[in-house]
From TrEMBL:
InterPro entries: AAA+_ATPase, ABC_transporter-like_ATP-bd, ABC_transporter-like_CS, ABC_transporter_ATP-binding, P-loop_NTPase. GO terms for molecular function: ATP binding; ATP hydrolysis activity. Keywords: ATP-binding, Nucleotide-binding, Transport. PROSITE patterns: ABC_TRANSPORTER_1, ABC_TRANSPORTER_2. Signal peptide: none annotated. Residues 6-240 form the ABC transporter domain. SUPFAM superfamilies: P-loop containing nucleoside triphosphate hydrolases. It holds the Pfam family ABC_tran. This is ABC-2 type transport system ATP-binding protein.
């Protein structure tokens, strides 16, 4: 057992120049550790370098510099063991239309050198809910079933680390829930899960730790709750008894959003302003308060704040 499922140091990837474009550095000296047994989220806007990182882990893209260890195995020193320790569920759905799910899983197990006696084809088919479709041609499977088959293929060699690249992009709620149930169950059995997602709410709900990548650099990495706690922003939502007056004197740094339902949402930073000061300003304006609520920031706010501040620094 290792403390870290993944240890990355100084990882850099520069794609060679192509016609019309110069070389492109997609990852700049990224350091990253993923604790064994965690569900880890890799977030970043489009083009941030997430796929590049995942493809390097999967052995599909060659790094330009740096060190990558998977389950303690250095990719350069123990390429076979490091590859055997990781399974990747890719984004793309292309698969041989004449392969049945059973044949796909068997072929994949063969590619990983899993002996016939150790194959878990039936168990995996059950896990991904495709027992009924085990012998149907892939072309007769729905989009959701194909996704589940991709997950199954990532599991044939019983990897310690499972990587899911945008697993729920464009899938319906039912399939999303089924995928997350599967992921939680695999994690409960001890598998480390790394996922990329565009759905920040989903990352907030699913992930123990999150790293944010922006323009090829890691700009944040922390436990999910701490990452959100880092952002000192707070919102106080007030429902006035009567419609609020137009003019309001507010302490510096407090922003007011008048919502359609007549409530007033005051956003402020706790290190600059207290709730008391906001309430004082509201009372001073003669507003009688019917109800009051506070809202914590979401990952989305953290994400926007961090990507924006790193752009400001780069500019
Ligand atoms: P993400 O997955 O976060 O959207 P990618 O890793 O796909 O980001 O891309 C990071 C950057 O590297 C982008 O600017 C992209 O255009 C570039 N890139 C990705 N793949 C290649 C490639 N094969 N050749 C050249 N540039 C690439």
């Amino acid at each position: 057992m290792t403390d870290y499922a993944i240890e990355i140091e100084g990882l850099t990837k520069t794609y060679a120049a192509q016609r019309g474009t110069g070389p492109k550095t997609a990852l700049h000296e990224v350091d990253l550790t993923v604790p064994a047994g965690s569900i880890f989220g890799l977030l970043g806007p489009n083009g941030a370098g997430k796929s590049t990182l995942i493809n390097i882990l999967a052995g599909l893209v060659r790094k330009s510099a740096g060190q990558v260890k998977i389950w303690g195995f250095d990719q350069d020193v123990n390429p076979r063991q490091s590859r055997a320790s990781i399974g990747v569920m890719p984004q793309e759905l292309n698969m041989d239309p004449f392969f049945t799910p059973r044949a796909s899983l068997d072929t994949q197990a063969g590619l990983y050198g899993v002996p016939k006696s150790q194959r878990r084809t039936d168990e995996i088919l059950r896990t991904i809910g495709l027992t009924d479709k085990a012998d149907a041609y892939a072309r007769t499977l729905s989009g959701g079933m194909r996704r589940r088959l991709l997950l199954g293929k990532a599991l044939v060699h019983s990897p310690q680390v499972l990587v899911l690249d945008e697993p729920t992009a464009g899938v319906d709620i039912e399939l999303r829930q089924m995928l997350w149930q599967n992921v939680r169950k695999l994690n409960a059995q001890g598998m480390t899960i790394i996922l990329t997602t565009h759905y920040l709410e989903e990352a907030e709900e699913m992930c123990d730790e999150i790293a944010i990548i922006h323009q090829g650099r890691k700009i944040a990495h922390d436990r999910t709750d701490r990452l959100i706690g880092q952002l000192d922003a707070k919102t106080l939502v007030i429902q006035p008894v009567d419609p609020a007056p137009e003019a309001l004197q507010l302490p510096d740094g407090v922003e007011l959003e008048r919502r359609a339902n007549g409530t007033l949402a005051f956003s402020y930073f706790r290190n600059r302003t207290s709730a008391e000061q906001v309430l004082d300003a509201v009372r001073a304006a003669g507003i009688r308060i019917h109800d009051v609520a506070t809202a914590e920031p979401h990952l989305e706010d953290v994400f926007l704040a961090l990507t924006k501040s790193s752009e400001d620094q780069a500019a």
